[in-house]
Specification:
The chain is α/β, with parallel strands linked by helices. Helices cover 25% and strands 18% of the residues. The strands form 2 sheets. Strands 1, 2, 3, 4, 5, 6, 7, 8, 9, 10 and 11 form an 11-stranded mixed β-sheet that branches. The protein has a 4-stranded antiparallel β-sheet with strand order 12-13-14-15, with helices on one face.
């Protein structure tokens, strides 16, 4: 029998529930990140995470604008079932809220003993609505509730929990948001905790307090500001990783980063061209569309000793997979009768294969007219329908990720299959009419 002193000195295998951080950037293009080929904008933290973790070439957002994409991430539902399928403003402040009956990943993690926080931007319901972050499982909130308010990086106020804190209009809000995120990690270092770090960078307006290394570039002010905002995002993410290591909890913390949708800029725009956001035409499209440039995100998973280092995978996953993944990591189970479109990615995160599924589905309702756009991916085939009256386009993503060659005329049987799958994927909702 070993002496007690020796037993106490042996390393203890980590059996604690892991901390979970999901860092969601706002309008970041996949091509903005060095690990995906960006050459002008520096992203050393994301590049480091890709080397020390896993880089995902085909990680999909919930859809291609802010509120519904975030709602998909929180609820585990794709756009065929998600209660929010568009940006819908409510005056004087806020967006259409998540319904009372909708359950989020934060609510499920709280049941498993997690401390929970959202820092940055919420955009899924003001505090007096059913979509308040405090009614959706979060203990702590700091930042912008309304995504329209979040367009200002030097705002006149910000929210600390549900209290409006006046500001002088000269304070760069990201400084305060970053401090709140780091403070939450410090305060909950004993774990387990879930941090939804919904950073507003690099969404417009394109405002920054310091252009840094880009100040003397022969670029426009907007180009310099945009590059500095991406690098600032990366820097603040780096501080998160440094804190996890300082507190010696990195080995028990999963960090996932992704964008909420594609770039705000068309490929032909100044930003699109300057920074080659389409990666020489590798991906087509941008925000508010249904092509891959709108839906594929710059995504990395980092968890020392658990997520394989240096892995670069083409296997796809989507935002609605996050909820069942987090619940499994927490050692919990989905409640009886709980509906999710997602699949747990735990085995995939650890180096296994991505889950098999019949399809990925997206839609988006812009404006007030019943003219939603749709897309569905089944295997390597991707169908796009740019409006209720539009013809179905068909692309082979394995051979044509840039979606340049529409094969609908050559593959009528696959077009019919796509149309049937689109109908199967969605539930009609009077708030989101199709025609």
């Amino acid at each position: 029998m070993r002496p007690l002193l020796l037993l106490l000195s042996l390393p203890v295998l980590a059996t604690a529930k892991p901390n979970i951080i999901f860092m969601l950037s706002d309008d970041l293009a996949q091509g903005d990140v060095g690990a995906y080929g960006q050459e002008l904008i520096l992203t050393p933290t994301l590049d480091r995470m890709a080397k020390e973790g896993t880089l995902y070439q085909q990680a999909y957002s919930g859809t291609s604008v802010c509120a519904p994409s975030r709602s998909s991430l929180m609820t585990g539902l794709h756009m065929g079932h998600c209660p929010i399928r568009a940006n819908r403003e409510i005056q004087p402040e806020g967006q259409k809220p998540l319904p009372a009956e909708t359950v989020t990943v934060a609510q499920l993690l709280k049941k498993e003993g997690y401390a929970t926080a959202c820092t940055g931007k919420w955009g899924m319901g003001m505090f007096d609505t059913t979509g308040s972050p405090f009614k959706k499982g979060f203990d702590r909130f700091f930042g912008y509730n309304c995504q329209r308010h979040a367009h200002s990086y030097f705002p006149k106020y910000i929210y600390d929990n549900d209290k409006r804190v006046p500001l002088d209009g000269k304070t760069y809000a990201q400084d305060l948001v970053q401090k709140a995120a780091l403070d939450f990690i410090r305060d909950n270092k004993e774990g387990p905790f879930f941090l939804f770090y919904a950073m507003t960078l690099p969404h417009g307006r394109y405002e920054i307090d310091d252009q840094g290394i880009y100040k003397d570039k022969d670029w426009s002010e907007k180009e310099k500001n945009y590059a500095a905002m991406v690098t600032r995002l990366d820097h603040d993410l780096g501080e998160v990783l440094e804190l996890l290591e300082e507190l010696k909890i990195a080995d028990n913390t999963l960090v996932i980063t992704a964008g909420d949708n594609g770039s705000s800029f068309a490929p032909s725009s100044d930003i699109g061209k300057r920074f080659n956001q389409t990666m020489d035409g590798k991906l087509r499209g941008f925000k508010r569309g249904m092509y891959e440039g709108a839906l594929r995100q710059a995504a990395v998973a980092w968890w020392p000793g658990k997520v394989p280092a240096g892995r670069d995978t083409d296997e796809p996953w989507a935002f609605w997979d996050f909820l069942p993944t987090a619940v499994e990591l927490a050692g919990g189970k989905l409640p009886d009768g709980f509906e999710t479109d997602g699949h747990s990615l735990v085995s995939f995160l650890e180096g296994g294969d991505a889950p098999e599924r019949d399809y990925f589905y997206w839609e988006l309702h812009e404006g007030r007219k019943p003219n939603a756009i749709q897309a569905i991916r089944f295997g390597d085939w991707k169908a796009v329908k740019n409006g209720s009256k539009a013809k179905v386009e068909l692309y082979d993503l394995a051979k044509d990720p840039g979606e340049k060659n529409d094969l609908a005329g050559d593959k009528p049987d696959l077009v019919k299959k796509a149309v049937k799958l689109m109908a199967k994927a969605r539930v009609d909702d009077p708030a989101w009419p199709m025609k």
